[in-house]
Amino acid sequence: MKATPRKGPRNPQPGEWTAAQYSKQYVASYKPFNFVDGEGVRCSLYVSGCNFACPGCYNLAAQNFRYGKPYTQQLEDQIIADLGQSYVQGLTLLGGEPFLNTQVCIRICKRIRAEYGHTKDIWSWTGYKWDELMQETPDKLELLNLLDILVDGRFLEPLKDLTLQFRGSSNQRIIDVPASLASGDVVIWRNLKR
Ligand code: SF4
Fold it and tell me: Which one, of 8, 19, 101, 20, lies nearest residue 62 by Cα?
């Protein structure tokens, strides 16, 4: 019998997918000094590999865990140097799926906190919903604790809306991570306009 095509993204069980199992620590792209991946001027790191397989994914090639090049010390040093420019507000992690590449993402976030404290902010996109992350593996929670802003949830094509700030579909939320962790509930980013 022919399999019915899947209509939406995949939905993992808690802890079903791990970075240890999937990540090859590859980077699809690094884009310094851009204005589109969050608030202010930002440096964006696109890690490789994502299992959600959202129909209409904006970065299909980066679903492959071996797309691009390995993350290197040289790239990390470049990111840290770029973030040192006074007009850069912070780093953005995208993919692919940052939470299935926690080895790379935790490493760069920790270095930013060590060198810049909270004078630079860190945003990340993820296909996981906030409530799913709360039930996930310790490395995912460690990464979450290093972030300022999380844009959560799969891209859902039926809810696609190009007028939204920094999101592709209306189910996705821009979440203030420290405030949400402190209150135990999702707190939306205070600068949200739409
Ligand atoms: S979560 Fe993002 S990168 Fe992954 S398949 Fe969905 S849209 Fe693509």
Answer: 101
CATH fold for domain 19-183: TIM Barrel (3.20.20)
What's the pTM value of the predicted model, to 2 decimals? 0.96
pLDDT digits (tens, 9 = 90+) for 44-93: 999 999 999 999 999 999 999 999 999 999 999 999 999 999 999 999 99
CA of 46 relative to ligand 1 center, distance in Å: 12
- Report how far ligand 1's centroid is from the alpha carbon of 59 (Å): 7
CA–centroid distance, residue 23 to ligand 1 (Å): 15
Q: Closest Cα to atom 3, ligand 1: which residue?
A: 96
